[in-house]
Amino acid sequence: MAWIFLFTAGLFEMTGVLMINQVHKERNWKSIAGLVVSFTASFLFLALAMETLPMGTAYAVWTGIGAAGGAVLGMIFYGEPRTGLRILFISMVLGAAVGLKFIS
Fold first, then answer.
1. Read out DSSP for 5-51?
2. Is 52 helix (H, G, I), strand (E, B) or coil?
3. pTM (two decimals)
4. For 73-102, b where at least 16 C-beta lie within 10 A, e where not — what string?
5. Is-contact 80 74, C-beta < 8 A?
6. How many CB atoms lie within 10 A of CB 22?
């Protein structure tokens, strides 16, 4: 169950990153509420995951999902560059997160 909590925390982290961009575009109560809710949920699920998983592993996987997911979402929704090297390094971040799962 801890890994499900951790994956959920990562998804909310990705949503929070999208909401940061949304707040910069238009400052209204909906985008600010989305930002607060996303990051609050992310931290809540991270805390639940850390009841079982080691702190270093949980934090590394959580940040990996958030960073890689944010980069991928930027390419999908905001036209950020889709170079081969960028995709390679995003894959390496995700590979490291998966590797931590296998050794934990």
1. HHHHHHHHHHHHHHHHHHHHH---HHHHHHHHHHHHHHHHHHHHHTT
2. coil
3. 0.86
4. bbbeeeeeeeeeeeeeebeebbeebeebee
5. yes
6. 16
* Residues contacting residue 101 through CB under 8 Å, at least 6 positions apart: 3, 61
Position 43, amino acid = F
Number of other residues whose CB lies within 10 A of the CB of residue 63: 15
pLDDT digits (tens, 9 = 90+) for 48-76: 999 999 999 999 999 999 999 999 999 99
CA nearest 73: which of 63, 61, 62, 65? Answer: 65
